[in-house]
Amino acid sequence: MPDPAISSEFTFELLVCRWAELDWPPDDAARGVDGESADAAPPVIVSRQLGTQKRRWDTIVIECDPEGLAARREFGDRTIDGDLLPLVRHAPAEWAYYRDALPDPGYPWRYVREAIHRGAARGLIEKRKNGRRIEIRRNRPYPDWVRRIVAIENKPDLDASAAAALSDQLEHDVETALADEVWLATGRTGERVEPALLREFPVEAGVLTMDFGDGGDRPRVDADAATVDWLPSTLEPQSDGERFDSAEKARRRRLIAERAYGKGWRSFTETTRPDCRWFDLERMGRGLVPVCGAKRRCQSEAECGSRCGSFEPEPPQWRTKGWPIEGGPGKGVRALLERRRERARDPPSKSS
Predict the structure, then answer these.
(1) What is the pLDDT of residue 135?
(2) Which portions of the chain have biased composition (kind: Basic and acidic residues) (predicted)?
(3) Contact at 8 Å (CB) between 64 and 145?
(4) How far does Cα 76 stand from its chain's mean position?
(5) DSSP structural state of residue 201
């Protein structure tokens, strides 16, 4: 059996995502949104490796309005991308010529027409021809479903070189203020003063120390895996900044939230090779992480690809031993994680 020890930032990141899904926000009732108690904590959507062109966050937690999230689910499970989102938000309740109904996109209208056809094909809006004109109307109002966006940078081992790079990244996050809060998640050392508190990080960034051990050799993730060592300051994404004005911030935040909704954090099967005979999932407490039977450990995302020297396709015989006829264990892994991703869009969901 492979050794499930945390041997990469990739595995640590997956465990942080699962912890956030289980127990966000990471403190007592004082961390509730708008004074809510812990029992009334908002539903969350957790994703990973998302951000802007110049900055990609390891983990993103979208705190959602429950009614707004329920309304967002009516638009389906897929991301509403940057071309479709203006259509969905601004499509009128009654039929109207699309150029009269939509704001100027800032680029040629022919691209808007292409987006209209895509949006109508997905059932996001309705379209019709009135003479030579294309008219549109909405199926339902697009909800204001996002309360807050929280960015988490993961670094299990915080040495001096890693701390220097992280300091610049966290400073960028604080300055741009696209997120409402910025956190650093690192491994707990058990020292009297955690090393993360001795590094020169922006004081606005919070610090979480994670303990994924259970006193033995096998790591695990549970709801109480995190300790808050430094509380973050609340940033101001609604105000103008040096990099983005408030309108641009709002647009980018909507896109980030949509991408998080569609992607989740279990989408690593799209960038790894679960169809390899050595790929497996290992339970770590209330979480599942990928492990490699050839390497006998948790692999990194970069290692798990067709260029891996140990990669072997699943034997065809595996596809006839109780698995769906259209695929073997790799298809089963994808189906399992997709079911859990769908369940996570319908919170509260605290089971494994």
Answers:
(1) 97
(2) 336-352
(3) yes
(4) 17
(5) -
For the stretch 233-277, pLDDT in tens is 999 888 877 778 889 999 999 999 999 999 998 888 888 888 888
Handedness of CA 253, 259, 264, 265 (dihedral sign): negative
User: Which among 191, 224, 220, 201 is positioned nearest to 153, based on CA atoms?
Assistant: 201
**The token pair that represents 98 in the structure block:** 């699309």
Q: Strand 146-155 to strand 181-187: parallel, antiparallel, or no bridges (unpaired)?
A: parallel
Could you read off the pLDDT of 272-285 as tens digits, one per residue? 888 888 898 888 88
Q: Which residue has the tokens 């070189």?
A: 161
Coil, helix or strand for 230? Answer: strand
Max Cα–Cα distance, the chain, nearest Å: 75
154 forms beta bridges with 185
Cα–Cα separations (whole angstroms), residue 342 to 153, 244, 261 = 25, 33, 10
SS (H, E, C) 114-133: HHHHHHHHCCCEEEEEECCE
d(Cα 214, Cα 310) in Å, to the nearest integer?
31
CA-CA distance, 152 to 26, in Å (whole number)? 12
- Cα–Cα distance measured from residue 85 to residue 317, given in angstroms and rounded to the nearest whole number: 45
| Paired tokens of 253 | 């935040």
Of 232, 183, 208, 189, nearest in space to 58 by CA:
183
Residue type, 170: L
